[in-house]
Amino acid sequence: MRIVLLGAPGAGKGTQCKSIVAQYGLLHLSSGDILRAERIAGTELGKKAQDYMDSGALVPDEIIIEMMAEAIKKAPAAGFLLDGFPRTVNQAVSLGESLAGNGMKIDVVLNLEIDDNVVAKRMTGRRSCPKCGAVYHVENLKPKVEGQCDNDGTELVQRPDDKPDVVANRLKTYHQQTEPLVDYYRNNGTVYDFDADRNPDEIKTSIFEKLDAPVKT
Ligand code: AMP
Description:
Order of helices and strands: EHEHHHEHEHEEHHEH
Oligomer: single chain
Distance between the termini: 15 Å
Strand order of the largest sheet: 2-3-1-4-7
Number of domains: 1
CATH architecture: 3-Layer(aba) Sandwich
Number of strands: 7
Bound molecules: adenosine monophosphate
Largest sheet: 5 strands, parallel
Shape: globular
CATH class: Alpha Beta
CATH topology: Rossmann fold
């Protein structure tokens, strides 16, 4: 199964991805995670991406398309789940062409729908551990000791791109450049919509119902 997960930043894509890949044995490919790893490793790619990322803008298509084409090559036969990519119609067209060249296609698109105000609150309150990557929230998922990671006691940080002005910019970028993808995929395949302003388990259950359905028939 080859899946694209769409949704505004902060819609909960990362959480759902973990459940989906565990359930269906897919490779989780998050373009944001790959870019952050490149930055930590100090690669040329990471350096090229950093200013765009920190301002909430998109990294240029040509960089992302090549990076993700390489990543997709490592997917198992069971398939992959794309998270954060494609993010422009241009990226989606390139992805489609590159998959078609290998006799493949995107089988299903999952679209997490959520209000801007809800995600803005979620993102600006998010804190993460720079050491182990654990994620917390100042209101909804507090660590045991304020400001410290439960796993290793490291001081929690706010990702630069979770700061309020950057969040506003990321949402604007999403509406302008990524939301048109929903219609693109509606005209080119199967899109399932999910209300993402619910508890993550409920969302997961609705996603699994849809993903299991074609298998049963
Ligand atoms: P994310 O964690 O998916 O929200 O990604 C963090 C940042 O990485 C985004 O705000 C963009 O600057 C950059 N990024 C991630 N995926 C893409 C993509 N498919 N196209 C362009 N930029 C991306």
